[in-house]
Automatic annotation (TrEMBL):
GO terms for molecular function: hydrolase activity, acting on carbon-nitrogen (but not peptide) bonds. The keyword Membrane applies. The lineage of its organism: Bacteria, Pseudomonadati, Bacteroidota, Flavobacteriia, Flavobacteriales. Keywords: Membrane, Transmembrane, Transmembrane helix. Pfam families: Polysacc_deac_1. Gene3D superfamilies: Glycoside hydrolase/deacetylase. The keyword Membrane applies. One of its GO terms (biological process) is carbohydrate metabolic process. It comes from Flavobacterium aquaticum. InterPro entries: Glyco_hydro/deAcase_b/a-brl, NODB_dom, Polysacc_deacetylase_ArnD. Residues 64-241 form the NodB homology domain. This is Peptidoglycan/xylan/chitin deacetylase (PgdA/CDA1 family).
Amino acid sequence: MLKHKYSVFIFFVLLAILFFTKASILFYVLLFLSFLAITTWGAFDIRLNYFTKAICKSNATNKKNIAITFDDGPHEKTPEILDVLMEYNAKATFFCIGKQIEKHPEILKRILNEGHIIGNHSYSHSKWNGFFSTQKMVSEIEQTNILVSKLVNKKVRLFRPPFGVTNPNIARAVVKTNQIVVGWNIRSLDTVIESENAILNRIKNRLKPGGIILLHDTSAKTVSVLEQLLLFLQSEGYQTVTIEELLEISAYEN
Ligand SMILES: [Zn+2]
């Protein structure tokens, strides 16, 4: 809880000031609404590092490196994504959901065999994830790490919270499970935007060395966007690398 601590402190200082100056109720309402707005923004924008430290890009911008990350697999579409990555000799990072690993263990193995990196994206990817207790969140992370460990004998260290949502419980769970939180700084919105061109242009407009792109290995649309993106990256002289290589960190415990 980085910036959240300061917000809480400022909130109570302002509350005390309102109390001692016998301010009108309107100022209390304004204070509560502002605090709520800041906290909500902090919960939904992982780049703010509001509740927990999340690595969202590399600061080493001297190399033209870029990391493509795929969330929500392994999925039926993942093999097609892997084929395209192989064709362009690109390496990527896959933040996998535990439940999906149970459905597609062979795809998880293939991801690793082809030189890509696995990260943890919770066990259930529940839409109620933001309301889970610390203990429940710990078990969400541990269940997936155990699955990966049993299948491929790797102890995962990289975690990406579902929907990029963070809060005090998730922050504590990450510390307890010794995970490194990895976010992104280029959100493709590939699950929201219909047009492939619009998705591609969104990425191109935000592209900078050291960037982390968020995609999902769950649709034919993304397979097609990936092919065009890799062509573009190649023509611009970018190297597409894993999170491990981009951030010079180790993705697994020894
Ligand atoms: Zn997700």
